[in-house]
Each structure stands twice: as structure tokens, then as C-alpha cells.
Write a sequence for this structure.
């Protein structure tokens, strides 16, 4: 019996030694292969530097290689250089340094399409419809809105000088605007009859605060019927969607996050809400993704509301964002402290060390895990199926009604004048079937003729002037058409009225 045990132990020991040796050999092969791959990349870099006709630095080549590596992964994994990462991180944070306007280019001009309330632009007197003629000493005629935005950008606290053409005024308006931190409000809301309506564009760092403000006004009118519009919402941060979900989802699980890496703990998020007060309909479509699906899925699974619209996008994957250190910063940390780390966050969390802005090569957004709905559904590539499937058709006569804004009723454009109100007027008239060749911002003779026909058809004095009464009539027509063509919204209202 003793001999048998000894023999078994010997066999096990020999087997372990063999496995250990095999593992050691495999590890050595793996190390040799890694060294060979690194040598190969170094040879490629040397070839480029030797034969490429122009100057290129090691850092540029490494950045290109890093970018290429992240490009080989799924569609949600990206590497952003410093310029790209600024825009990306600003979207997530919901803030940026600017003057507080939205602009677009049309007919060789750059128009202000929106001025944010209480922003620097608002305080300086800039209004919707203004045409930006100059930024500083540089003319922006013929420039794109992106090129103009780059000229307007600058450090917080500095000033930018604009020259503006304003409809109805002959002289240019000169304004001095201070660049400041602008918080992006992703929420629009309205109250009609006894139904509240909230549209959420993205889950940025301001989303829950803005939802809270909207609900405070809705609650103040004792309204408990609510439409939550998540259509075309691409998602955003998990922290924000969880805070918002806690306002609507009953006590229990909201979502579970399952990560591959053992360095990232799986997470479960719960609601403690025992005081549900809303009869809820959620609008979704094929562009409702990620965090939108976390919220919509939790509402659907817990039965506190119904989904109306079309199948959602189907993004059940979770991304994390990490700063990637430059080769120089990596090398210095390795030489000084023996730390071999490329992730700036890991440097902070594991070693309590900070990094400077100039030590960051860029940022990566990398898929790290998956999320599940309260009922355990994993919806990646599938999406959420709405409780009431309804498709919308917004386009008529090659015009998308969602692209038409209400007219301001602030100016009466004269012949050949440029105005955003003219653009929206022309879009609406073309949608209605009036003769408009190509909507632009110019109040030309064709536009005047179409306005004259509209006035005649609606019982106005038909003299072809876009006066305030005609603008009001067009706005009312637009409001009715939006409801008529937005069958998803109509269904939501119907469900809440029953």
C-alpha cells in the first residue's frame, strides 16, 4: 500500500516536472516571439526613417502603430490623438471652452443657429440668425462651420472679437466675447395638457442634473404621465444612466456589468426607489444605443413603462477610457522608479503618481466587458424589441421634417436677404408641396412667390412678405405636421390618455 502511494506520488511529481518544464519552455518561446515581434517593428521603423522622403519622428511612428493596434479590434474601440480626445472627452463631460453658440454654414456664410442661455455669447448680445463675418481679423466667408469653430476656440478667460451681419441692419455689429466653460444641456422638455415630455440627447455628466430640473417642473404641476424620448440617443456614461434609472426603476437590479479582466471588478447597480410616481412611455428607435438601452431595458424588464418605436441599436458592450502615456514618459518612469506602465490611470491608482498633459500620447476607448438587463438579457447585436412597434416616415418631397425649426418671428426678411428663418420657411413650404427648388437662406423671388401662395391658401393677404402673422401660421402648421408624421409620439400620447 505504501509502495503504491509512493509510486503514485512519484508519477504525479514527474508529471508536474514535465508540465513545469513544458510551461517554462512555452514561456521562453512566447518571450522569444515577443522579442522577435518587437525587433520586427523596430526594423519597420528604421526602414521608414531611412527611405521615407520626408521627416518623421519615432513618436509619430509609435502613435501610428498604437492607433493601428486599436483599429484591429471591435467597432467601439478607438484611439484618439490629443486633438480628437479633447472633442471626445468634452462630449462625455458635457462641457467645453467656447462662447456658447451652435453654428452652421450655408451659401458661403456661417450662421448662428442657437445661442445657449446665460452663455458669453448671450451676454454679448449675439442672437439666432446672426451671420459671423469675421473672427478677429480673419474673414470666414466661404469657410465651413468646423473651420470657423476652430478660429473661435481658445483658452478660458481670453476674448475673441467677432463682426456680425444681422438681418434688418445695414451696419455690421462688432462684439467682444469672453471664452468660458460652457455646460451642454442635453435635455429639452415640455408640458402639454396633462402629459410631460422629456427628450434626452446623450448621457453626459450633466444629464441627471438636467433631468432632475425637468422633473421638478413637471412634478410642480402634479403631472404623473411622462414620455421619455431616447430616440437617436447614442449613450454615454454608466454613472449617469444609473442615476437617471433610479428615478424611474423600482427597487432592485438596474444592470449588471461583466468584465473580462480580473483587475476590473464586475459591477451590479441597484435602485432603492420605493416611491414610483410616473406612468411612463419610452420612445426608442434604431439609433437608441448603449446607455439608452440600459435605461430602456431596465424600464421594460421591471414593467414600470412600455417601449414605443422600432428595435434599438443593440450595443451590449461596455467601454472604459484610459490615457496612454508617451514613450518618453514611459521611459522616464521605468528608469527613475522601475515602473513599466503605459496607462496613466494605473499610474495614479497603483502608485499614487500623477502625470502632466504633455506626457499623454492620446486616449483609448476600449471594450472591456458586457452589460445585462435586470432579467439577464444580453442585447448586443440584437437590441430591445419595443412593446409597440411603430415606424416613422419623416421625409416628404426630399425634406426631413425633423430638420425644420420654428421661425423666430423677430424679423421680416426683405428680398435677397439671408436668414435662417428663410431656410426653415423654404424647407416647410417644399415639404408642403409649394414650388421651392433648393432651400437655402436667401429670400429670392421664388421664395416670395411660394409665400404668396401659402398666404392665399390660408386666408391671408397674399403679398409675398414673410411677416410675423405668416411666420406664426407656418409654425402652427409645422407643429401639427410633426405630430402627424411622428406616429411614435402619437402612440405614446394615445397610451397615456387611455
Amino acid at each position: 500500500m505504501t509502495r503504491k502511494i509512493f509510486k503514485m506520488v512519484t508519477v504525479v511529481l514527474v508529471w508536474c516536472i514535465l508540465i513545469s518544464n513544458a510551461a517554462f519552455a512555452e514561456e521562453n518561446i512566447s518571450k522569444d516571439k515577443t522579442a522577435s515581434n518587437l525587433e520586427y517593428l523596430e526594423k519597420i521603423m528604421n526602414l521608414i526613417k531611412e527611405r521615407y522622403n520626408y521627416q518623421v519622428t519615432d513618436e509619430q511612428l509609435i502613435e501610428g502603430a498604437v492607433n493601428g493596434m486599436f483599429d484591429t479590434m471591435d467597432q467601439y474601440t478607438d484611439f484618439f490623438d490629443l486633438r480628437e480626445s479633447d472633442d471626445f472627452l468634452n462630449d462625455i463631460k458635457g462641457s467645453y471652452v467656447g462662447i456658447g453658440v451652435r453654428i452652421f454654414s450655408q451659401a458661403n456664410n456661417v450662421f448662428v443657429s442657437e445661442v445657449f442661455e446665460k452663455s458669453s455669447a448671450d451676454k454679448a448680445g449675439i442672437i439666432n440668425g446672426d451671420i459671423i463675418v469675421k473672427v478677429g481679423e480673419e474673414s470666414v466667408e466661404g469657410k465651413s462651420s468646423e473651420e470657423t469653430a476652430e478660429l473661435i476656440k481658445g483658452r478660458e478667460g481670453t476674448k475673441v472679437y467677432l463682426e456680425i451681419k444681422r438681418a434688418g441692419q445695414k451696419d455690421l455689429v462688432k462684439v467682444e466675447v469672453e471664452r468660458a466653460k460652457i455646460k451642454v444641456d442635453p435635455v429639452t422638455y415640455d408640458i402639454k395638457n396633462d402629459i410631460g415630455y422629456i427628450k434626452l440627447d446623450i448621457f453626459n455628466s450633466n444629464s441627471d442634473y438636467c433631468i432632475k430640473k425637468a422633473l421638478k417642473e413637471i412634478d410642480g404641476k402634479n403631472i404623473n404621465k411622462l414620455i421619455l424620448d431616447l430616440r437617436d440617443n447614442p449613450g454615454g456614461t454608466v454613472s449617469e444612466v444609473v442615476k437617471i434609472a433610479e428615478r424611474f426603476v423600482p427597487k432592485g437590479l438596474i444592470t449588471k456589468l461583466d468584465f473580462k479582466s480580473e483587475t476590473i471588478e464586475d459591477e451590479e447597480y441597484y435602485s432603492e426607489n420605493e416611491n414610483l410616481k410616473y406612468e411612463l412611455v419610452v420612445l426608442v428607435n434604431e439609433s437608441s444605443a448603449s446607455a439608452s438601452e440600459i435605461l430602456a431595458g431596465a424600464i421594460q424588464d421591471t414593467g414600470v413603462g412600455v417601449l414605443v418605436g422600432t428595435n434599438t441599436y443593440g450595443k451590449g458592450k461596455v467601454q472604459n477610457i484610459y490615457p496612454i502615456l508617451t514613450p518618453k514618459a514611459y521611459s522616464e518612469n521605468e528608469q527613475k522608479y522601475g515602473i513599466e506602465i503605459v496607462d496613466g490611470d494605473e499610474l495614479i491608482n497603483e502608485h499614487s503618481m500623477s502625470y502632466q498633459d504633455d506626457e499623454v500620447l492620446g486616449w483609448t476607448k476600449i471594450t472591456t466587458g458586457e452589460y445585462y438587463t435586470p432579467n439577464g438579457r444580453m442585447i448586443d447585436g440584437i437590441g430591445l424589441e419595443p412593446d409597440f412597434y411603430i415606424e416613422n416616415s419623416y421625409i416628404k418631397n426630399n425634406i426631413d421634417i425633423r430638420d425644420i425649426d420654428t421661425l423666430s418671428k423677430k424679423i421680416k426678411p426683405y428680398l435677397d436677404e439671408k436668414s435662417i428663418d428663410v431656410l426653415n420657411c423654404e424647407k416647410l413650404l417644399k415639404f408642403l408641396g409649394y414650388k421651392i427648388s433648393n432651400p437655402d437662406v436667401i429670400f429670392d423671388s421664388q421664395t416670395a412667390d411660394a409665400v404668396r401662395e401659402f398666404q392665399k391658401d390660408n386666408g391671408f393677404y397674399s403679398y409675398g412678405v414673410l411677416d410675423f402673422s405668416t411666420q406664426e401660421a407656418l409654425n402652427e402648421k409645422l407643429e401639427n405636421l410633426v405630430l402627424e408624421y411622428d406616429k411614435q409620439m402619437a402612440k405614446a400620447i394615445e397610451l397615456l390618455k387611455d
